[in-house]
Amino acid sequence: MQPIRKALFATAIAAGFIANAQAAATIQTLDITWYKAFHYTQVRRRRESRLRSMT
């Protein structure tokens, strides 16, 4: 019975680590996506502003 408890405990710990790693990866992906969207919006606005000032 003791080996089964140890195995279940180790499995639960591993599952927790995997869940945390996946959550962190998801958060990083969302942060990068938000940054890229913001960055490209700013670049587009600057480009449009320069084009307007040329005309």
TrEMBL record:
<feature type="signal peptide">
    <location>
        <begin position="1"/>
        <end position="23"/>
    </location>
</feature>
<keyword id="KW-0732">Signal</keyword>
<protein>
    <recommendedName>
        <fullName>NitT/TauT family transport system substrate-binding protein</fullName>
    </recommendedName>
</protein>
